[in-house]
Amino acid sequence: MSRKQQQKGALESNTFYNFVRFKVVPPLFLLLFTGAVQVLVSIGRGQSPCPLDLNQCKSICGNAFAWKFVTFSIFWAMVGLWVPGKTFIGPATPEGYRPPYKANGFLYYTVTSISFILVQLIFPDLPHLIYENVPEILGCFNIVAFALCVWLLFDGRRKKKSRNPLLYDFYRGCELHPKLFGCDVKQLTNCRIGLMLWQVLVIAFVLTQWRNGDGVAGAMTSAILQTIYLAKFFHWETGYFNTLDITYDRAGYYLCWGCLVWVPVLYTFHSYHQVAFPSTMSTGTANVALLLGIACVLVNYRIDYEKQVFATWWNSKERKAGKGSDSRPRLWSRPVSFIPAPYVDATGAARESALLTSGCWGVARHGNYTFELLCTFFWTVPAAFGHGPIPSMLYFFFLLALLVHRVYRDEDKCQAKYGPAWHKYTKAVPYRMIPFIY
Ligand code: NDP
Questions:
Q1: pLDDT tens, residue by residue, 215-237
Q2: Do both 365 and 420 map to the same domain?
């Protein structure tokens, strides 16, 4: 019996684990998080957080403006994936399928952001209208996400012949790479709607605050840092197709609702909160936070980039053909070092991968998460000035929990995949996130 099968058997025989995984987490997540977002939008604008408030209940169904905004956002995102352009072939699934993606992320991001800013010249009230209708927009996205996930559930169960509990498949998803109207569902929901909406909302909130005239220094620092981060994301979008979200998580409520509703609400919360509760951060402090935040975004980018350089070389025909005495790319002025990591894929085929041990990846195993957290700190902290970190810095605390949990999730995955090679890697690079500490 292979190591993977042994681990699977151990998990399946663990009835408590299965009870929590199948019966507790899905309903808890559905009730708690879906309700939490409606409460958050009320708290963020200083209104009663009671979910039974009649006015707030009405917002769950949206309104004409919100439906127009949501329909246009989805249609525009689909157009971005339908237009002809370069294709990026993603990493192979355990079954050997390599999904194609549209590789025009940065173009889509710049065209959308610039167009949105230019539209303000014709409709100067648009940012304020968006801010005023956030609860309704969110209500519409909740309905859309629910409908999408019902379709994903039935379509996925039909194709995969899944025998998991229905609610678990709804929550966790059935398929890794489903398609809707010719679009990859995860590229559509995660990148083209969720993250683009993050940018559009941040612009709308900062312009609303600009018009109100209070706390502009802090709001600008938040907005500029998030804009740099999002531009960086779209520039690197094809790298995102190698991450856990895409290669490991299936398209279900957890991921698709998360990107359609949770990201626009929680990831923009500090900017949204500042409109009703302006930051008292001075211009000098805001500039320091801005500079430190930019440095952290750049380091986070650099770490992801180093892994991408290494993966490109590792998968290159030249390396596979053994051409050149040493074709290794250089990091920090030295040829890269790595640990060969053979593994067996789901079809039973032997494969060869490698774990980078030089550059930033020789310092800590998840340095990208550390700098992701630091830049998040610098763009959420302005909202805490004058109002305290709770709830204004909620996104930072959420990400702290998410990324620390993700470290263990990722390491479990790598341990199961690479076994002894992963063990050797943890000996060569002993720290997870912070050298000498953790
Ligand atoms: P990583 O980019 O760290 O990818 C982890 C995978 O990389 C592992 O599963 C393994 O996959 C491979 N790997 C691990 N160590 C090495 C190594 N030394 N050499 C080569 N390959 C290695 O994590 P994520 O995909 O989670 O994150 C990507 C980016 O997204 C980061 O910048 C992160 O901060 C950001 N992020 C942001 C979030 C947010 O909500 N704001 C949430 C999550 C991530 P394999 O099986 O291919 O070997």
A1: 999 999 999 999 999 999 999 99
A2: yes
Question: Counting atoms of ligand 1 from 1, which one is nearest the CA of 357?
Answer: 18
Residue 282: what residue type?
Answer: S
Q: Please choose from 307, 310, 331, 351 the residue to mutate so as to test ligand 1's pocket, defined by most ligand atoms within 8 A of CB.
A: 307
Both 218 and 298 in one domain: the answer is: no
Query: Same structural domain for residues 198 and 252?
Result: yes
Ligand 1 atom with the smallest distance to the CA of 414 is 9
Q: Which helix (H) or strand (E) holds 220?
A: helix 216-235
Q: What is the CA radius of gyration of the chain?
A: 23
Q: Do 90 and 218 belong to one domain?
A: yes
Residue 122 CA, ligand 1 centroid: distance in Å: 42
Model confidence at 48, in pLDDT bands (50, 70, 90)?
confident
Domain-located, residue 6: no
- Quick one: pLDDT at residue 59? 79
| Substitution site in 372, 396, 404, 412 for ligand 1 pocket (most atoms within 8 Å of beta carbon) | 372
Residue whose CA is at the smallest distance from ligand 1 atom 6: 243
Instruction: List strand residue ranges (DSSP E) for 261-392, in order.
Output: 330-331, 334-335, 338-344, 350-356
Residue nearest to atom 16 of ligand 1 (CA): 355
What is the mean pLDDT of the segment spanning 134-138?
95
For residue 122, what are the contacts with CB-CB under 8 A and spacing of at least 6?
A: none
Report if residue 11 sits inside a domain.
Answer: no
Number of H helices, E strands in the chain: 21, 8
Contacts for 210 with CB less than 8 Å, ≥ 6 apart: 216, 219
Q: List C-alpha distances in Å: 333 to 88, 279, 312, 424.
A: 29, 43, 18, 24
Given a contact cutoff of 8 angstroms between Cβ atoms, the answer to whether 303 and 368 are in contact is yes
Residues facing residue 338 across a β-bridge: 356
Residues whose CB is less than 8 angstroms from the CB of residue 287 and which lie 6 or more positions away in sequence, other chains included:
221
Are 194 and 211 within one domain? yes
Alpha-carbon span 334 to 313, nearest angstrom: 15
Among residues 222, 245, 244, 187, the alpha carbon closest in space to that of 375 is found at: 222
Residue 56 confidence (pLDDT) = 65
Q: Are residues 289 and 372 in the same domain?
A: yes
The answer to whether residue 13 scores a pLDDT higher than 70 is no
What is the domain range of residue 371? 281-438
Window from 46-60, 179-193, 408-422 with minimum mean pLDDT: 46-60
Q: What is the pLDDT of residue 28?
A: 86
176 phi and psi, to 5 degrees? -80, -40
